[in-house]
Amino acid sequence: MITHDAGARGFGSDNNSGIHPEVLAALADANGGHQAGYGADAYTARLQEVFRSHFGDRATAYPVFNGTGANVVALQAACDRWGAVVCAESAHAHVDEGGAPEKTAGLKLLPVPAVHGKLTVEGIAREARGFDDEHRAQPQVVSLTQATELGTVYRPEEIRAIADFAHARDMRVHLDGARLANAAAHLGLPLRAFTTDVGVDLVSFGGTKNGLLLGEAVVVLDPALNRGLDRLRKSSMQLASKMRFLSAQLIALLSGDLWLRGARHANALAALLHERVRDLPGLRVSHPVEANAVFVTLPAAALAELHEKFFFYDWDGAAGEARWMTSFDTTPDDVDRLAEAARAALGAR
Ligand SMILES: Cc1ncc(COP(=O)(O)O)c(C=O)c1O
Questions:
Q1: Average pLDDT, rounded, for the chain
Q2: Domain ranges in the chain?
Q3: Which residue has the least CA distance to atom 7 on ligand 1?
Q4: pTM of the prediction?
């Protein structure tokens, strides 16, 4: 039955990991008997309390299958049909969702340059304009990613400044939180301190990269955005009939400290990897290491040698840039082996 080496781990992505044992146990606990489908089950009801304990009493959580779906549903909820979304040029929604926000939601994305993956008010201002121009798709949402695709983290005051700027222009703030837990672990703050409390209107909350089999949630923080969200989730093909199993996993993640344990561990091992490789000759770290990714540029021969031994992605192949990503189940030994192999590959040159 088993067709892979269950002891092998690479640095490809945090979603290359398996299911956290506590999440697997929660799935087994939720099994058996019948529960009404489509969210009318005991687990999805309980899930609301769990999300409110993190995001405040006005939050409502809508479980969905995946992160692209969460973004597509959330962005539609925050936009009119003629709306546009300002995002970083590195945003997952822009570069890694197969055009889903444009194709499925019919929304125009307005990407802007973002150093280390982080938007600034000045960057957003380049596209947050033309509000009285009927020829221009109307910028109605700013979408940030926290932690960013490049492994960096916004501080609460940075998000507050962006939210103030956006709200002053009647725009909404969406946070792609596929790695929101990693951001919390880096900041040492509760989730609401850099979402609800600083003006974020809605969040795509990620579970898959932090130990779930699959499952994310659109978390609506401004109740006005609940209108029609359930319909949008259905018409975007993100309504799970057996929703109890999405909800049971998210409860397992968020009702105790599993979300934070997993994220802290992944971040700590990225920090360890960074420490081990940052001074190697010929290697350059491309972005601050704040969450669970280490981006490096290496000479092509060293990169090729490492690819023979480890699974990871080239981020910018032409520039010789690789992304090494850690996960809740990465071990210090895994990091040692990669760091030593990098040393050998570079030293051999
Ligand atoms: C920043 C970010 N957002 C969203 C996603 C969700 O993607 P998926 O649709 O694969 O679950 C990912 C996954 O890589 C991501 O890195």
A1: 97
A2: 20-254, 258-348
A3: 67
A4: 0.97
Of 95-99, 224-228, 306-310, 344-348, give the lowest mean pLDDT range.
Answer: 344-348
Q: Using a 6 Å cutoff on CB, does residue 158 contact ligand 1?
A: no
Answer whether 60 contacts ligand 1 (Cβ < 6 A): no
DSSP 198: G
Whether 233 contacts 64, CB under 8 Å: yes
Q: Taking a C-beta distance cutoff of 8 angstroms, is the pair 159, 144 a contact?
A: yes
Best residue among 14, 15, 68 to mutate for probing ligand 1's pocket (most ligand atoms within 8 Å of CB) is 68
- The CATH number of 20-254, from 3.30.230.10, 3.40.640.10, 2.30.30.40, 3.40.50.300, is 3.40.640.10
How far is ligand 1, taken at its centre, from the CA of residue 204, in Å? 10
Atom in ligand 1 nearest the alpha carbon of residue 145: 1
Domain 258-348: give its CATH code.
Answer: 3.90.1150.10
